[in-house]
UniProtKB/TrEMBL annotation:
Keywords of this entry: Hydrolase
Signal sequence residues: none
Protein name: Ribonuclease VapC32
Alphabetized Pfam families for the sequence: PIN
Organism encoding this protein: Paraburkholderia aspalathi
Positions of the PIN domain: 3-114
EC supergroup of this enzyme: hydrolase
Gene Ontology molecular function: hydrolase activity
Keyword Hydrolase appears in the UniProt entry: yes
Amino acid sequence: MSVLIDTSVWVDHFRNGNDALVDLIELDLALTHPMVIGEIACGTPPAPRIQALASIGLLQPCNQASLNEVMEFIEREKLYGLGCGLVDMSLLASTLITPGAELWTLDRRLADLAGRFGIAHRPTLH
């Protein structure tokens, strides 16, 4: 099992720390996606900024769904009007095409959709 880490989890980790995320990173089970790195770059990752972004970029990438694949996925599964945007849908579709992957998000709407497709990551509490 590997886990695609959504931007919301990273932001929470930057603010509060997250042992479950650290465990996934140490076990080399944390996945990244270019859109997550882009979203983090739009915000304020911890200093040194360039190193924080580069470190996230060193994680294993998930398979990346193309824009056409994401658009087809949205239409086929009727995922429009549910409060999730293009990045969310890209992460969901990319997780689904990455064998054995789950999606970890703190966004309620995206988590609900991940649950609907059976790929929601629910970290165990220590």
